[in-house]
Amino acid sequence: MTKTKNDSIITYNDYMKLNLRIGKIIECEEVKKSKKLLCFKVRIGNRTRQILSGIKGYYEMDELVGKQVLVLENIQPATMAGMQSEGVILSAEDSEGNLALLVPDKNVDTGAEVY
């Protein structure tokens, strides 16, 4: 995954603008127009968001349903492969370019704020 790294220092006020929450994947399906994207329905508290993520090929879809994930909620919706994404599921890339979802190390209430 190639991204432009931004080493700019942000302020504490910038950090406080991020709405990071614990979400639970309740549905997962392939995006027909994409080789990399999966479409998720993610429950965040009492809300459900549709979020697209480029992690196809790193996980089996059935192992993702029920998994808790870290979600950036307050990002402007984006259209990818003709579908709208209403958030970002956070992941990390290892030295070989494989993606790993960022998940809590124990069960946390869905919708809990991440600090």
Describe the structure concisely for a colleague:
This protein has 115 residues and is mostly beta strands. Helix content is 8%, strand content 38%.
Structure description:
The chain has 115 residues and is mainly beta. Helices cover 8% and strands 38% of the residues. The protein has a domain at 24-101: Nucleic acid-binding proteins (OB fold (Dihydrolipoamide Acetyltransferase, E2P)), CATH 2.40.50.140. The protein is globular. The strands form 3 sheets. A 5-stranded antiparallel sheet has the order 3-2-1-4-7.
Query: With helices defined by DSSP (H or I, 4 residues minimum), what is the helix count?
Result: 2
Beta-strand fraction estimate: 35-45%
Low-pLDDT stretches are none
Please identify which CATH superfamily of the domain at 24-101 we are dealing with. Answer: Nucleic acid-binding proteins
Tell me the radius of gyration. Answer: 14 Å
What class do helices, strands and sheet pairing give? mainly beta
What is the helix/strand order?
A: HEEEHEEEEEE
Largest sheet: 5 strands, antiparallel
Q: End-to-end span in angstroms?
A: 26 Å
Cross-sheet strand order for the largest sheet: 3-2-1-4-7
What is the name of the CATH topology of the domain at 24-101?
A: OB fold (Dihydrolipoamide Acetyltransferase, E2P)
| Number of distinct beta strands | 9
The outline comes out as globular
The overall pLDDT average reads: 95
Name the CATH class of the domain at 24-101. Mainly Beta
Percent helix range:
under 10%
CATH-scheme architecture of the domain at 24-101: Beta Barrel
InterPro entries: Met-tRNA-synth_bsu_C, NA-bd_OB-fold, tRNA-bd_dom, Tyrosine-tRNA_ligase_regulator
Subunit structure: Homodimer.
Main location: cytoplasm
GO molecular function, one term: methionine-tRNA ligase activity
